[in-house]
From TrEMBL:
Name of the protein in question: NAD-dependent epimerase/dehydratase family protein
Pfam families found in the cross-reference section: Epimerase
Protein origin, superkingdom: Bacteria
GO terms (BP aspect): L-threonine catabolic process
Length: 320
């Protein structure tokens, strides 16, 4: 394997995944080798990266310049508009979710980058696909703007690998649950909001109906999986679009029951909105056996351990 010092650029570094991934990368590679970037001002409480670039990831020339100036070898390109927000701004979502990815693929093709991570989503599956244990290679049929953009992105990743050997790696993330940085604009976000509202109000109104199961994952497991995939020997990888990642599968009602074990007075009711139709088009559970076989995907948190950890940390964070 070629050995070199990794210089890492993270886009979307102040987002839900970005903040936690950046801090883990700093622990592994040192702050001097990690450059965080995002649209907002640098919040030093959120990221321990050695450098921060305030940049619009759609600004092709600026991004190229930054990659050049810092001699970046590896990009974690996380900036993206999630499913709910994408439905409201379809053209912008397409532009943001696809074009900057192509810019990074081009830079890798030209030899400016060695490795790229790019997140896809369970949103690629869509209507008419079996609900349970959905396999890696089913026909993709997304019916949302977000799902369409992620499916196109996966195809571009495959194309750049097949044609030019670009080493781009990807995971189809399920809904991600975490307490450090709130999620924003997703369909699975109910599973984060519910914890904030449980701690702050003792009750929650879910925008997803009680019996709708979706695949979910605790952030610690998501970060571990991402780093494991990026560390895996190239020759072990058989998927160059994006790996299925199943995590947990539960409904709002089941999650509320877990919260009630810790907070018996917690109450939930249901007022589904436009995101229900998005959830209805997604799988309830995913088969991730190929990721387990190729690069040793594994999980630490089940729904009970996750619920306990979320409530413990949020109570501290929110001073409750
Ligand atoms: C969303 O709900 O849009 C995201 C996702 C599953 O990709 N969390």
């Amino acid at each position: 394997m070629e050995s070199y010092t990794e210089k890492i650029l993270i886009t979307g570094a102040l987002g839900q995944i970005g903040t936690e991934l950046t801090n883990r990368l700093v622990k592994i590679h040192g702050a001097e080798n990690v450059i965080a970037s995002g649209l907002d001002r640098w919040d030093k409480n959120l990221t321990s990266a050695g450098f921060y670039e305030r940049m619009d990831v759609s600004n092709t020339q600026l991004v190229r310049q930054i990659v050049k100036d810092y001699e970046i070898t590896t990009v974690y390109h996380l900036a993206s508009l999630l499913s709910g927000t994408s439905e409201k701004q379809p053209l912008f979502a397409w532009k943001l979710n696809v074009e900057p990815l192509l810019n990074f693929c081009e830079m890798a093709r030209e030899g400016m980058l060695k490795k790229i991570f790019w997140p896809s989503s369970i949103a690629v599956f869509g209507k008419g696909i079996p609900k349970e244990n959905v396999g890696q290679d089913v026909v993709l049929n997304p019916t949302t703007v977000y799902g369409i953009s992620k499916m196109a992105g996966e195809k571009w990743c495959e194309y750049y690998y097949d044609k030019f050997g670009v080493d781009i790696r990807s995971i189809r993330y399920p809904g991600l649950i975490s307490w450090k940085t709130p999620a924003g604009g997703g369909t699975t976000d109910y599973a984060v909001e519910i914890f904030y509202e449980a701690v702050e109000q003792g009750k929650y109104t879910s925008f997803i109906s009680e019996n709708t199961a979706m695949p979910m994952l605790y952030m610690d497991d998501a970060i571990n999986a991402t780093l494991k995939l990026m560390d895996a020997p190239k020759e072990n990888l058989t998927v160059r679009g994006s790996y299925n990642l199943g995590g947990l599968s539960f409904t709002p009602k089941e999650l509320a029951e877990e919260i009630k074990k810790e907070m018996p007075d917690f109450e939930i009711d249901y007022q589904p909105d436009f995101r229900q139709a998005i959830a209805d088009s997604w799988p309830a559970s995913i088969d991730d056996s190929i990721a387990k076989k190729d690069w040793g995907l594994s999980y630490e948190f089940d729904i009970t351990a996750m619920t306990k950890d979320m409530l413990k940390n949020l109570k501290i964070k929110l001073g409750k």
